[in-house]
Every structure is written in C-alpha cells, then in structure tokens.
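@here heads up, posting the sequence + SMILES for the flavin-adenine dinucleotide run so it's all in one place. Ping me if the SMILES looks off, I pulled it from an old spreadsheet.
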Amino acid sequence: MRVAIAGAGLAGLSCAKYLCDAGHTPILLEARDVLGGKVAAWQDAEGDWYETGLHIFFGAYRNMRRLFAELEIEDRLQWKSHSMIFNQKENPGAYSRFDFPNLPAPLNGVAAILGNNDMLSWPEKIAFGLGLVPAMLRGQSYVEECDQYSWTEWLRLHNIPERVNDEVFIAMAKALNFIDPDEISSTVVLTALNRFLQESDGSKMAFLDGNPPQRLCQPIVDYVQARAGEVQLEAPLREILLAEDGRVAGLRIGGIKGQEGRTIAADAYVSALPVDPLKLLLPEPWKNLPYFSKLEGLNGVPVINVHLWFDRKLTTIDHLLFSRSPLLSVYADMSNTCREYEDPNRSMLELVFAPAKEWIGRSDAEIVAATLEELKRLFPQHFTGSDQASLRKAIVVKTPLSVYKTVPGCQALRPDQASPIANFFLAGDYTMQRYLASMEGAVLSGRLCAEAIDTAARAGAIGPGVAGASAALAPV
Ligand SMILES: Cc1cc2nc3c(=O)[nH]c(=O)nc-3n(C[C@H](O)[C@H](O)[C@H](O)COP(=O)(O)OP(=O)(O)OC[C@H]3O[C@@H](n4cnc5c(N)ncnc54)[C@H](O)[C@@H]3O)c2cc1C
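bot reply: prediction finished. Complex structure tokens:
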C-alpha cells in the first residue's frame, strides 16, 4: 500500500520506517531542504554545525533506543555519567550535583536526592517526597488527572514550599517545555519524574555524536529507500484534496524554485507536520469535527537556541548543565559532549534561551549580548579581570512556534493517530502518546501511526481498490 506522509521530522521519519517494516511503501514529503524538523541542523561557511535545538536523549526513551538498535547505530549515542548538574545560584561558577548511584530504581533516585544538600533542605525533601506518593502509587492515571493544575498549583496543593520551585523546578520546567512552573501542566513534570523514579536508567542522558540530520535522520532515509520508499525534500504540502465521499483524494504539493506543483495520490495519507501549520491546512469540511477543532487549543511555544564559539576552553564538563539563570534554560559545551563538534582547546556553548516570548522578536545581537551577560555568572573566572575569554562567533536560531505549549488542559485536546477520516492519519509529538513533546514522543507517535494504518489496511478500511484510494482516485 502507498502511504504519502507530509513532514520529515522524527515523527514522519519514524512513521515511514515502521510502514516499511509492515510491508507498505511510504512517500515522505518534506517542505524544507533539510531533514529533521526540530532536530534540523546546518553548516556555516567555516564548516561549523548549528542546530535548531540542543538535544538530550534519556535512558527512559525506549522507543528511540529501539530505533537506534534497529538501524544499528547505537554507538552514536554518547552516554554521560548518571548525574544532573545545576549551576549554583548564590555561588557563581560553582555546581551542585545529583549523582545517581548504581542501584535499582527508585533507590538510585532517592539516594541522588538525599545526597544533595546544596539545593533542598531536609523538610523540603520530606514534603516533596510525601507529595509524590500518590503519583508513585497510582501511576499514570493520577498523573493524567493532574493536567488540570499548573506545576506551581500542584506544589501549593501539597503544601510544598515555593522555594522548591525556585531551587529545582524553574530549571526543570524550562528544560521540559521552555516555560515556567506557573504555566506548565503538572502532568508534564510528574510524567518526567515518574519515568526518572521508576526506571533505573530513566534520567541517564546521552548526546548524539554529531549533527542530527546526518547522524540520525539519514540512516532512517537510507532504510526507507532500501525498501522502495521515497523521500522528497523541498516538497511542501499546500492542500489536502478531498474526494466526493469525504476521504482524502490526494496531496497538493507546491512547486518551489520555479518547478510545477503536483498532486500525490496514495492509499493513505499522514500529516507529520507540527500542529500549527496543520491547522492552517485543514480542509473546510473538517474544521467542525471535534477531533480537528480541538487542535485550536494546541499552540507552539517560542524558543531560541544560541551557539557561541570562544577562543579558549571555558569548562571541561562533559554533560548537560542546568543554568538556573533567568534568561537561559539548559546548556552544554558541545566541544566536550559531542564527538563531531570536539575541540580540545576552544569551547562551543549551545544554550537554550527560554522562556523566549519577550525575546523572539529581538535582534540576534541583543540576544547574544544578553546571553554573554548571563555567562558572567556561569563562568566568572573567564568573564572578569584582565584576561577574558573572547567570542569568536555566534549564531542564533529562533523557533517562534516549536513544540506545543503544555499548559493545563492540553491532554484532552491531543488527538489519536487515527482520525475520523478513514484514510487520513496524524503523527507528531503533539499527538497522543505517553512521552509528551519530545523526540521520544515524536518517534513513538510515528510508530503508533504506522500501526494504525496497518490495522486499517488489514481490516479492509483502506488500501488499493477501496474508495478514496489511489486506484479509485477521482481527477483533482
Ligand atoms: C530548542 C529545542 C530543544 C529541544 N530539546 C529536546 C531535548 O533535549 N530532548 C527531546 O526529547 N526533545 C527536545 N526537543 C523537542 C523535539 O525536538 C521535538 O519534540 C521533536 O523533534 C518533534 O518532532 P516532530 O516530527 O513531531 O515535529 P517536527 O520536528 O517539527 O517535524 C515536522 C516537519 O514537518 C515539516 N513541515 C512543516 N510544514 C510542512 C508542509 N506544509 N509540507 C511538508 N512538510 C512540512 C517541517 O519542516 C518539519 O520537518 C527540543 C526542541 C527544540 C526546538
């Protein structure tokens, strides 16, 4: 069966891969000239890579790890020590660590929390531990019920001191969804904590060993093409064409760089677009269906990824760092953490600038200047005195609408992969799966989407010869 998929981010790529495994033929259509969507990256004139976002892989990412294993590229994940490292707020240049010993979960997590005395006091740790008991006992159903509360509201409901937010969860909320604890749904934070506390390696982190388009996306493309699938870049979906029976009849693909537009016909169709562009392309008759109208409540959040190249080494830490700074979220010295970006003598910092609402419209120069100001606190030894580090170059990548903003109430709005239109399906990190807006969520959504298509094909609801399929396509 031919399946046309619009969008070659991780969700579209994963969907194509698992459709091949089920014996179908995907045609993947990507608007841009680069693979990967939110993991896309580019090379500047000097050959240095810059990325849409600093990306971390967690031990809890079972579906992503399975994909790496199936592609035989597991050695491309560079696993770091099992720790979480935070900058100290009151002590510039110093760090506070949560080190997870080699014990089964949840003992390793409990030991990591008890072993850190810089950030939380004993009464705060006890209050917080008691607050987590329902989540641990009742699991995901409790976590889903909590989608009515922001994280700050959840802490108040459990009489957990506000200081716990200041010390830990502002950094955590910004890392999870680029927003503050007052905005983020408690379901998101509890989901992450549950994974971290229930799986021994859940919070262990890895960096990819190089740029994601070549090191992760291209092997999926090679896999798909080796199985008769197609991948077309610069093939933007412009219109979803409907047949008289209400099913999809084809995808209208725009012609760019002077080329003619064209129509792609298939037996089934997938949108693996982010939710914001999908909403703009919904055919008029679909807009009142609750499945599609609910998407109006899902909206991308702005985020900025800053790359700074320096004339010297600022740190030798080979790990993700939580800045706990007002303007920044997490950051890493990629010259230490990523094989392809390695430099023994000079640092390349990749920093996530969030929340970015107030900054997304500002100039790159303003954003770089504000980031450098924050670095005075993160690396005081290199940004004070007579011999200061100098910036060689900077690149700012803005994403005005990135992953959907996980405010309270979003769980009920997230769609299943199978839509009410028999031959139309959705993949994407915003669609319903247990990993929220993440690379793992995108990969899982792609696999669930491929499974839904295969199930519909086996049930005879879609496929060659079924109305609306390519064999019976009405002229469009
Ligand atoms: C700064 C930043 C940091 C992040 N850090 C992490 C992290 O550390 N860990 C983690 O797990 N996740 C992280 N994420 C989230 C992660 O990148 C996303 O959840 C995931 O990559 C989304 O994949 P997707 O396929 O659902 O969507 P996307 O990656 O957005 O893919 C959608 C694709 O559709 C294409 N498209 C759009 N319109 C059209 C059209 N009309 N026709 C055809 N194609 C179209 C786009 O070009 C894109 O390629 C981060 C994201 C950002 C922005």
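MO: The domain at 2-35+211-298+406-458 is CATH 3.50.50.60 (FAD/NAD(P)-binding domain).
MO: One more: Confidence is low (pLDDT under 50) at residues 469-476.
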